[in-house]
Automatic annotation (TrEMBL):
Signal peptide: none annotated. Gene3D superfamilies: Chloramphenicol acetyltransferase-like domain. Residues 1-142 form the Condensation domain. Pfam families: Condensation. This is Condensation domain-containing protein. One of its GO terms (molecular function) is catalytic activity.
Amino acid sequence: MLYHSEREREESAYHDIMTHTVRLPYNEAAFNTAMAALMARHEVLRTAFNIGQYSQPLQLVHEHVAVPLTTEYQLDWTLDARQTSMEAWLAEERAQGLDFTSPGVFRAKVFVHCEQAFVLGLSFHHALLDGWSTSILMSDLVSY
């Protein structure tokens, strides 16, 4: 997957971007703490890859990585403005791509729409997570 992603940078077949609606009030400090715990628990979220300097590709797990999380408060935005913001984020993520050489192969963004729910956007390479592991990740996140 990494080989094809490296050769075909314009394609985003292995760049997964998804959103999850979380029906809980958003507490930024608590969520940052939960994300930090998630990053500490799951080594794959702290992973980078070196695919060209050695005779074999290497997966490098970093001990500490800053939580790759941004938050956008949209409490009094119109539905159209929220949709435009989400579409812009999706387009930006696709255009930015992923840098395998640093542990930025996973990013998250929170869109706070109302007092009782928020949307969590995740952007990552498929070499890190798939459908099953994303479900485990989300279960762990809400348990913190």
